[in-house]
Design a protein that fits this description.
Blueprint: H1 15-21, E1 36-40, H2 44-54, E2 60-64, H3 70-82, E3 89-92, E4 98-99, H4 102-117, E5 121-126, E6 137-143, E7 159-165, H5 170-179, E8 182-192, H6 193-203, H7 205-216, E9 219-221, E10 224-226, H8 229-233, H9 240-245, E11 251-256, E12 260-261, H10 266-272, E13 281-283, E14 286-289, E15 295-298, E16 303-306, E17 311-315, E18 320-324, H11 331-340, E19 351-354, E20 357-365, E21 368-375, E22 383-385, E23 389-397, E24 400-404, E25 407-411, E26 416-419, E27 425-428, E28 435-443, E29 452-455
Parallel strand pairs: 1-2, 2-10, 5-11, 13-15, 14-16, 15-17
Antiparallel strand pairs: 3-8, 4-12, 5-8, 6-7, 6-8, 7-11, 9-10, 17-18, 19-20, 20-21, 21-28, 22-29, 23-26, 23-28, 24-25, 24-27
């Protein structure tokens, strides 16, 4: 529910925000347009909030009801871009990459423009710095001939793609590195919208047809565009590489060396992070003694290590991870065991984000639950009531506006109110600063389905999309005014 692209893993910005920021200063003939954002509908408010923090107004935010991999997602973007009658170049960027050489990235995009404008589907191939087995590879061919989208004299430009190669074993990867004619497949592309749709139609007409139906039947929802669920769900799930790039005769590659990583593991994050004199990356309140080559990440408590090497130690509100750096890919096995055990930590953080703000489940026991609620400026929870619980609210920061039955009143810092069982109530933030309060629920049943919603400004009535049901929701099965 809170994936890596929304986390500030490198620097103070989230990976999504860093992806958007590196577009600044990127010039192209005819100018550039605001970004099109394709995301899952359950992430829409977090994504919108992070873009708002940057002061970026997206060209559109298109919501996928289900994940269908990159080929359908890019088809949807291309169809949306073509709807106005224009046919722009699309720069396709996953939002979870780290790129250390931002200017080098921008230069690579500029070098790719001639080939893309000439009708090639251009990918960016990262020059390998080791025999990595976690990436697919591209065999790089000859430079494109003049008039076929090649760069001008003295420029590097694009090359033909000989073939795409699946993730290799270690011996094969070492052979690719020794050969020197291979690049990592970055998953970034530059292509003409119409060209991509033509190629997709040639190789996966079923996918293109499903995406067309999903876009044609899409509807506006606040600032979002919701794809038609039935149509988009009918699309096959496939990556751009499998659906198009491995089959087209128009593939091209621009080799790059830009400090790129897709941060597919904690060890990959250690590789791109800054290190101290002992090769450690320390984030948060960390003291390391006689410790080397480790990634140490503390969010809420003091983390200390003594006499250890090559560890990944990550402390969050929810859990603590300790793993050897060379085995961080095996964390998936832990996630699988959590799901088998019915543990919510596999999917939810203790802090859950909602369109109006966030909540953090602090404590729970028989007959009670405690949450810390943050309501953003202008945020407004739904008008609702509960059948089985009462609630106590204590404001610890800011000024809240409270509706309780026929009363509407302000609640200042250090003031509290009681919401009796069965009372119609709402919480709002009329100010310009966040409101924080402590909510104590008490009652015979605290499940998130104990709600009757009368009105919601975020259009969540009658729809179970991760924001509906109890405004308190949560990974512990509890309720509260926090969803």
């Amino acid at each position: 529910s809170y994936p890596k692209q929304l986390l500030p893993l490198v620097g103070g910005r989230s990976m999504l925000q860093a992806s958007v920021e590196r577009l600044e200063g990127l010039s192209a003939p005819g100018g550039t347009r605001p970004p099109l954002v394709i995301c899952n509908e359950s992430h829409r408010f977090i994504v919108a909030s992070q873009l708002q923090e940057l002061g970026v107004e997206p060209g559109a935010m298109i919501l996928e009801p289900v994940g269908r991999n990159t080929a359908p997602a890019v088809a949807v973007a291309a169809l949306h871009a073509r709807a106005s009658g224009e046919d722009p170049l699309l720069l396709v960027l996953p939002a979870d990459h780290v790129i250390l050489d931002v200017e080098g990235f921008r230069d690579a995009v500029r070098r790719a423009i001639p080939a893309a404008a000439a009708g090639h589907l251009v990918t960016f191939g990262v020059t390998p710095d080791g025999p990595e087995t976690g990436y697919g590879y591209i065999q790089v061919g000859d430079p494109l001939a003049a008039g076929a989208g090649a760069a001008g004299p003295g420029e590097t430009g694009a090359h033909a793609v000989v073939r795409f190669v699946e993730k290799p074993d270690a011996e094969t990867a070492r052979g690719y590195l020794a050969d020197g004619g291979y690049a990592w497949n970055s998953g970034m592309f530059l292509l003409r919208a119409s060209r991509y749709l033509d190629e997709l139609g040639a190789f996966r007409p079923d996918m293109l047809a499903a995406c067309r139906r999903a876009v044609d039947a899409a509807r506006k929802d606040l600032d979002f565009i919701r794809l038609d669920e039935a149509a988009f769900s009918a699309s096959p799930s496939e990556s751009m590489d499998y659906a198009v790039m491995e089959h087209t005769g128009r593939a091209a590659v621009v080799p790059v060396s830009i400090g790129w990583s897709d941060v597919g593991s904690w060890s990959a994050l250690w590789e791109v992070a800054e290190h101290d004199e002992n090769g450690n990356h320390l984030r948060g309140d960390v003291f390391a003694h006689d410790t080397h080559g480790s990634y140490l990440h503390a969010e809420h408590r003091l983390l200390t290590t003594v006499g250890v090497d090559d560890l990944m130690v990550v402390e969050t509100r929810d859990a603590v991870l300790v793993a050897h750096k060379d085995r961080s890919q095996e964390i998936r096995a832990i996630v699988d065991r959590l799901r088998e055990a019915g543990r919510t930590e596999a999917d939810l953080h203790r802090k859950v984000y909602r369109p109006w703000g966030a909540y953090d489940a602090i404590d729970a026991g028989p007959g009670f639950q405690v949450k810390r609620i943050t309501v953003n400026p202008g945020g407004r929870l739904s008008l609702q009531k509960h059948r089985h619980r009462a609630e106590h609210w204590v404001v610890v920061r800011g000024t809240a506006q409270v509706t309780c039955d026929d009363r509407v009143f302000l609640l200042e810092e250090n003031e509290s109110t009681y919401i009796p069982l069965g009372s119609t109530h709402r919480l709002e933030n009329p100010g310009t600063e966040p409101v924080e309060l402590i909510e104590v629920q008490s009652g015979s049943y605290l499940g998130e389905d104990d709600i009757v919603r009368f009105e919601d400004v975020y259009g969540r009535e009658g729809r179970d999309d991760g924001d509906d049901g109890d405004d308190g929701g949560g990974g512990d099965g509890g309720g509260g005014d926090a969803a």
